[in-house]
Amino acid sequence: MEKEIREIGKKNKIEKELVIKVSKMKPVIKPTKPHRHEGYHELIFLNKGSGHHIVDDNKHEVRPPVGFYLNLGQVHCWDFSQIPEGYVVMFKEEALTNYPSALNNLFRLHDKFNMPRQDSNLMEQLDVFYRDFKANEPLELLSAHLNTLILKTVNLPALKDNIHPNFISEFSRLRRLLNENYLNLRTSEEYANLMKISTRKLNQICQAAAGCNAIEIIKERLFIESKNLLTHTNLPVNEVAYKLNFSDPSNFIKFFKSQSTLTPMEYRSRLLS
Q1: Does domain 9-153 sit in CATH 3.30.420.40?
Q2: What global pTM score does this model have?
Q3: Torsion angle of alpha carbons 64, 72, 158, 120, nearest 10°?
Q4: By the 8 A CB rule, do 27 and 83 touch?
Q5: What homologous superfamily is domain 165-272 in, according to CATH?
Q6: 218 to 160, 185, 191, 192, 254: CA distances (angstroms)
Q7: H or E element in which residue 125 lies
Q8: What's the start-to-end Cα distance of the chain, in Å?
Q9: CA atoms within 13 Å, Cβ hemisphere of 137
Q10: Where is the HTH araC/xylS-type domain (predicted)?
Q11: Strand locations in the chain, DSSP E?
């Protein structure tokens, strides 16, 4: 009997004509399959529920009040043990055209952040945001809600180290370009050319923002996608290499081992142990 190929699914929960959507968490505890949302970001705020949220290869315990952030294309799934309650805010980057600082601050968020237990202002703001969305209020108002929400969220605990404001915008731009081009562009020079800056300047930005040079940031993005495909699909290693645009499976194996000290098959076998 031919083996069924298991791949990472895609979901699109925001209608084509919308740039912002606010919805309540579904009151169900059925586990979801690993999938990605392409073309939009998600902010999730939970005040009830328990279980686990898996983002890429990181397993987070759900202990409300808690929030989660999903960047473009990240793979995730839910496994609730108690019915969740809260809000999901989905948005395309064009929603923040008038708020560039909010867009730049997104990459400072971890996959998971802590919400203040005693402060109800955040959930009250989400209540108003949801009502305004359901009332078809104009995009200008909804974008203003989103801007305020991001600025509040970025000051919650469990954020990455503060980055000098001179580098926030350019590093954020690099991260967005990586999400769009990591399968085809692999060198610092290529990204520097896209950003119309020198390779030296790009490395300065990466050192200030992440403590490493640009090529390490580029490799990290490709490595994350490698782990997603090895973890959430049953594709053979040579097919994973093909999907990641490696010219030969042996080159993919060398790359993966250089990032983890494990071969792709060893990595997979540890997931099952």
Answers
A1: no
A2: 0.76
A3: -40
A4: yes
A5: Homeodomain-like (1.10.10.60)
A6: 18, 9, 9, 12, 16
A7: helix 121-134
A8: 26
A9: 16
A10: 172-270
A11: 9-11, 20-24, 35-37, 41-55, 58-62, 66-70, 75-91, 112-114
Both tokens of 47, joined, read: 């005040």
Enumerate the domain spans of the chain.
9-153, 165-272
* Residue 57 DSSP label: T
Residue pLDDT, tens place only, 64-90 = 999 999 988 889 999 998 999 999 999
> Which residues contact residue 77 at a Cβ distance below 8 angstroms, ignoring those fewer than 6 apart?
31, 32, 33, 34, 35, 53, 54
119 pLDDT band, cuts 50/70/90, is: low
Mean pLDDT of 228-235: 89
CA–CA separation, 137 and 234 (whole Å): 45
Reported as half-sphere exposure (CB side, CA atoms, 13 A), residue 65 has a value of 17
Which candidate, 202, 206, 176, places its Cα nearest to that of 189? 202
DSSP state of 108: G
Q: Which residue has the tokens 């912002």?
A: 20
Contact 106, 41 (CB under 8 A): yes
Q: Please tell me the distance from the alpha carbon of residue 91 to that of residue 112, in angstroms, as a whole number.
A: 18
